[in-house]
Amino acid sequence: MAEIDIRFATPSDLDFVKQDGYIPAEVVKRKIEWQEVLVASKDTTLVGYLRLEYLWSLVPYIALIYVTPEHRRQGVGITMLHFVEEFLRNRGFNVLYSSSQANEAEPQTWHRRAGFEECGIISGINAGGVGEVFFRKWLK
Ligand SMILES: CC(C)(COP(=O)(O)OP(=O)(O)OC[C@H]1O[C@@H](n2cnc3c(N)ncnc32)[C@H](O)[C@@H]1OP(=O)(O)O)[C@@H](O)C(=O)NCCC(=O)NCCS
Fold first, then answer.
1. How confident is the model at residue 140 (pLDDT cuts 50, 70, 90)?
2. Which atom of ligand 1 is nearest to the CA of 72?
């Protein structure tokens, strides 16, 4: 199986890392400049990305993690997570937050398997009144 490489996104990755369309391209561009976007590749093919942000500009939070459907369940998500954990640990952070829609069981399973614990819910924050479950992982 091809090795999974993780690195920070560069401007040439923009089309790939904005494909979900949740936020404007201009914002994604700025996040790339701020080292808040990672990409995963196998050989030269991009297979996943992770967008990081900081609650109150202080507390790291995974805004989105995405693996292309044909590359799921091959360790890409976990490998991106470990890269971001190491990056944050080296900068002195000791906790990472993330979240998932309340009606999506699979990403919740992934978070628990990846070492996150559930730490709260914001009800009705998503379209259609769907809640968002929050997760926390201590960075030992
Ligand atoms: C959630 C997501 C990022 C996981 O990435 P991935 O690369 O497929 O997951 P990994 O290979 O790292 O999975 C590690 C472990 O998590 C668990 N897991 C992952 N996906 C799972 C699923 N769909 N159902 C149940 N368990 C799952 C498994 O235990 C898995 O280990 P295993 O394959 O050896 O059993 C990916 O499925 C995805 O992009 N989903 C769509 C976007 C999304 O929902 N993102 C999360 C909310 S922001």
1. confident
2. 8
